[in-house]
Amino acid sequence: MSKSSPILEVKQLHTHIKTAGGIVKAVNGIDLTVNEGETLGIVGESGCGKSITSLSVMGLLPKPMAYIERGSILFDGRDITHLSEKEMRKLRGNEVSMIFQEPMTSLNPVFTIGQQLSEPLKQHTRMSKKEIRYKIIETLRMVGIPRAEQIVDEYPHQLSGGMRQRAMISLAMLCEPKLLIADEPTTALDVTIQAQILQLMKEIKQQTKMAMMLITHDLGVVAEMCDRVVVMYAGQVVESANVRSIFNEPSHPYTQGLLASMPDANDRKGELKSIPGSVPRPDEVPKGCTFAPRCSQAIEKCWHERPPLFTLRHQSCRCWLYANEHQEVAHAT
Question: How far is CA 287 from CA 62, 237, 333, in A?
């Protein structure tokens, strides 16, 4: 496989959630591709559908409440959209792994670190107990955990937040997956530990050549880690580009607003800008452009008609401001 081969292709994914008030379209027709060896950032505020997208890919939607209505998810060329739980279990932790936002909710408090890290190896390999223990200690060392021989027998509550997140990363890395999905992996950590964890993930990615899908609301993390970026808003992709184009030439008013709201290290006294309003609830999405109620550049058409994704010179953008006859509609990002 060449470096540019897609390891993950999500095509027109619609994920719905059943609620007391009816069906909610949490993910509303997104397209995205993660190529082998690259890091794709998925950016957006809380409630825009980032995590539901990742749970759809991992087959971890809380069924029957949440389900994939239509669309396809191809992993390494294979359609995994409607695999059985047994088939997904063979894939999860082995070829595709996930790091969650809060390690304390992902690690079981009544089992030692070693017991929990041994599970994927028991499931996906034929290693002996001794080999499993050696592999776990080796992986804990790789993610920078000191005293790995002792930590392997300790419980999650005996570790600091940063150490627990490192343990989660080692759990994700044990079977050397082709794709790592990281959902806000540093949100719960302080700034110093956050920098260490991001550096660690960067080093692991360089060593293993795996692909990474990084979900975050932090554009600083995106600048540091990502090759390409998908910006999501209200369950849809509103802009997609390489990381340089997103920062140098943001096209969508939402992307421009996110970048404007980043603090400037050189201007400490400057006021922080913010985007007025909030992401609409999935059951209250407006008729036209979903961002129109918060957009200072909205035109009449924005309120009545939903824009498609337009192909621009360096990116795709879902905005009527770019609707002229020289640009064609992009169906994938």
Answer: 28, 17, 23
Tokens of 148: 């790995």
Pairing label, strands 39-43, 211-216: parallel
How would you classify residue 22: left for phi > 0, otherwise alpha for psi between -120 and 50, otherwise beta? left
Domain limits, the chain: 6-84+181-188+210-322
On whether the CB atoms of residues 182 and 98 are closer than 8 A, the answer is: yes
| pTM tops 0.85, yes or no | yes
**Percentage, residues of the chain above pLDDT 70:** 92
> 6-84+181-188+210-322 — its CATH code?
3.40.50.300
- Structure-token pair, residue 198: 């991001």
- The dihedral built from the CA positions of residue 186, 187, 190 and 191, taken in this order, carries a sign that is positive
Residue 107 three-state SS: coil
> Which of 302 and 162 is assigned the larger pLDDT?
302
DSSP string over 219-255: HHHHHHH-SEEEEEETTEEEEEEEHHHHHHS--SHHH
330/333 Cα distance (integer angstroms): 7
Token readout for 78 is 């294979």
